[in-house]
Amino acid sequence: QLQLVESGGGLVQPGGSLTLSCAASESLDYYAVAWFRQAPGKGREGVSCITTQSNAEYVNSVKGRFTISRDNAKNTVYLQMTSLKPEDTAVYYCVAGVAGIDYWGKGTLITVSS
């Protein structure tokens, strides 16, 4: 079973940057991968996704600030986040899907605060 481990979270000041990594236990070549987030007291929200062909989409609130990418040679997907805002504070989850089956990581916390 595919396992995903997120890393790169932490505390950052407003306007700062972070890059999240999602490392997989096996090849991601055939998986579409997405990042979701869940802010305190709120529901889970899709942030960005990338197809096997590296086509990317973003929720409006992060367009122009976040960039998703994948390195299939390293079985890793990244989320580069810039111009971070307090409302970006959340647990960020990596999800990989293929043939209707989704695999979730355990998440990494990002706190944007001065």
Folded structure, characterized:
The protein has 114 residues and is an all-beta fold. It contains no helices and 11 strands. Strands 2, 4, 5, 6, 9, 10 and 11 form a 7-stranded mixed sheet that branches. Strands 1-3-8-7 form a 4-stranded antiparallel sheet, with no helix packed on it. A hairpin with a 5-residue loop joins β5 and β6 (56-58).
Features:
11 strands; 114 residues; four-stranded antiparallel beta sheet; mainly beta
Large-scale geometry: globular
Oligomer: single chain
Order of helices and strands: EEEEEEEEEEE
What about the largest sheet? 7 strands, mixed
Number of helices: 0
Produce a short descriptive summary.
This protein is 0% helix and 54% strand. With 114 residues, the chain is an all-beta fold. A hairpin with a 4-residue loop joins strand 7 and strand 8.
Which helices and strands appear, and what pairs or packs with what?
Blueprint: E1 4-7, E2 10-12, E3 18-24, E4 32-38, E5 44-50, E6 56-58, E7 66-71, E8 76-81, E9 90-98, E10 101-104, E11 108-112
Parallel strand pairs: 2-11
Antiparallel strand pairs: 1-3, 3-8, 4-5, 4-9, 5-6, 7-8, 9-10, 9-11
